[in-house]
Write a structure and sequence with these properties.
Largest sheet: 11 strands, mixed
Number of domains: 1
CATH class: Alpha Beta
Order of helices and strands: EHEHEHEEHEEEEEEEHEHE
Number of strands: 14
Distance between the termini: 23 Å
Amino acid sequence: MLISGFTFIKNAQILGYPFIESIKSVLPIVDEFVVNVGKSEDDTLSLVKKINDPKIKIIESDWNEKMTDKGYVYGQQKMIAQFNCNGKWAFYIEADEIYHEKEIFRIRDAVSEIDKNKIIEALAFNFIHFYGNTNTYLDSPGWYRSEVRIIRNNIRTYAPDGLFWLVLKTNKIARYPFAKKIAVTCYHYGWVRGEDQMNLKSEKVQKYWNKTHSNISYENIDPSILRLFEGQHPKIMQTLLSQSKGLFKTNPNYRISSKQKKHRFMKAIENIFKVDLSKRHFKLVK
């Protein structure tokens, strides 16, 4: 039973992605790791090569800069990487996602357990989204709390905008994959990079959604969704973690948006009825 890890990246160094740590965090449990490196303005490609692990297979690609519809170029690049995976199972990671050394081997055990159950097509993990600093995470139905990251590689799937998979029932009809959720957490560090890097990222990628960049200020967020992280970060991230302490400080004069008001209301419903109203791109199999 082969497991292929894969990702796609471009300008990962200048945009502040912990992409080397991300790849290394899953190398112990995959049989190969495919990295689709888009033509970049920095040393992303050479840094991936310096990992110097025999499991890593590098693909170099040019992004279609004319593809500006709903981020579909991300779906293209994700599938280029997945189509080069030889494993029966494909493990997708994004360049700001890290897996904990205390949990990583649970993933391979879970894949072995479900391998012969044809109903289960994917594995979903818990997500923790750090925000502003590495002591703070977000608790809101507006931020997905679980998502699929491993899928059978012998079924017809595609990623419409890179964020999730759809399984083709026919050439015209698709659905979310049937997934089992396991007790593994994906640590998402995308919103703790410097604001300058976050704004540079926005400037470079918004065009793929046919949008224009708007300045991002971390302090302008609903403070009611911030929570203090009291767990332990993966060891591989220790040297990159900021030394800040306490909960991230927000702008006291910020007025929350209508969407954030909606999420506050949804959170209140969650608290009353003990339900999870966050978005899922999979059908849960218990």
